[in-house]
Design goal:
Length: 376
Amino acid sequence: MATGMEEHPWYEIEDTRALESPALVIYYDRLLDNIRRLKKMVGDDSRIRPHVKTHKMPEVCRILQQHYITRFKCATIAEAEMLAQVNAADVLLAYPLIGPDLERWLQLIQRYPKTAFSCLVSNFHNAQTLSRRAKSAGMLLKVYIDVDAGMHRTGISLDKAEDLFNDIRQLSGIEIMGLHVYDGHLKVEDPAERQKESDRQFAPIELLLKKLNQISQSPLKLVIGGSPSFSTHIHRSGAELSPGTFVFWDMGYGTHFPDLPFKPAALVVTRVIDVLDNGTCTLDMGTKAIASEMPFPRAEFLNYPELEAVFQSEEHLNVRLPEGSLSALPKVGELLYAIPYHICPTVALYDHGWVVKDGKIADQWQIQARKRKINF
């Protein structure tokens, strides 16, 4: 086994006889370290609003709360409900409320009055719908205007944001809390160039925020940044930062953003189920076990870093060693430890994650919010 110089690599689990595969494995101490690194970088817990879409686990939310992080961001109503169930103080649903989701949202707000809920709006049609339903329910909905800073996925363009702000102000049943800006397209690898590009893209947002604050009845908040870009916004006074992947990290961000201090804290454990005569071996890590929306490589094998993916189906992944390699193929039944290229959708493939403490399986955490619906 190509384990390098370490006698006991950090990822190695002592007793895996009862560990089914493929399995999602979470390394508790590394998770804590990643949270501490984020807190140290930002320097102000009140400015951290982590996105829970990566982990979807109540236990991780509670650990963040124990580290004095009380504001959260999410992408589904199930994630919002999970946060309410752990008594999160402030929850932003960073997704438009369309169709029956609006009714679910109102029920959730009524069921958990101790949590301050807010959602996004990026067009007047949606704002009118929210206003009408809020008035009929006798409620006040808090919203953030979703601004498109260049990613072109959701949000209103910068040149139209002021008009939307003024139009929404005329509606009853809605209170504008601030602006939401997700710059997920900012993926410049060099940190100095990333900062430079972030400052360039942020300049018109800053002007817009300043202008809107002049006519707003109360100071507007700004929620901005994801895992690749949040560090470029730390110096922006008052901005709330919303990375998500930092808790577990992954191969993709680790490869492209080595300046960020986070370490992999969640792996997929897979077993060799066959070794073929053609020089490949088969793992039980198909597309049902690891995010497969990108081309190969979809994982890095820590104990066999030379392995190359050849073919993947629903239940299987065939791998081989490069030509001329002096390493030996892993044996049937052997365990491989894989860092997913993209951890967020990988987590959503599992019902639970196994928690490792001091090299041993110590707990099992349910990935509760992988469901689209918990109660509401």
